[in-house]
Amino acid sequence: QKEVEQDPGPLSVPEGAIVSLNCTYSNSAFQYFMWYRQYSRKGPELLMYTYSSGNKEDGRFTAQVDKSSKYISLFIRDSQPSDSATYLCAIYTGNQFYFGTGTSLTVIP
Amino acid sequence: GAVVSQHPSWVICKSGTSVKIECRSLDFQATTMFWYRQFPKQSLMLMATSNEGSKATYEQGVEKDKFLINHASLTLSTLTVTSAHPEDSSFYICSAPGTRVDQPQHFGDGTRLSIL
What we know:
Oligomer: heterodimer
Shape of chain B: globular
Distance between the termini of chain B: 37 Å
Strand content of chain B: over 45%
């Protein structure tokens, strides 16, 4: 079983829609969860991170961790065409990263 | 903020050529750097961990003689793909560890390698 699993999509939504991106992970000991955004032919950039469980909000973005079900989510409200990118979930153990496969998102104007 | 610069951003070369990719930490020192490979529509796969002044640590299945890593200074790590073949065509990304929990890793912009 992979450490983290992510639906690769692709996902296509109209502008203004709410987007939900999800990952599952295997080890209940994992504590640091991150979401990276990667534009085409660019390196990933950190979008949000959460420690342990709960929600974290930053503008239109909300990251959520449900440790009981080992499920992490990223919600994007009022999605914009500029949000079109690949979103990767990641887990950091303190000395190693595990990345999901990434979900390709297209927001249609 | 901390920046990792990767060069070149895109290289096209003939099969059998060796290609060197550079990764620099611009305003901080990095005793460790990571090299990833990313195939289209796939995730980042860690290839190796580059250690300043010592040998790199390679992940299982990665050929050491194929992917030569040198980390000769605290701000520069290089990855050389030796005798590259079309199956080596991929997106190579380097990163350096951050010092804050909210920025655990700084990524370069990647190098697109196309072998003809």
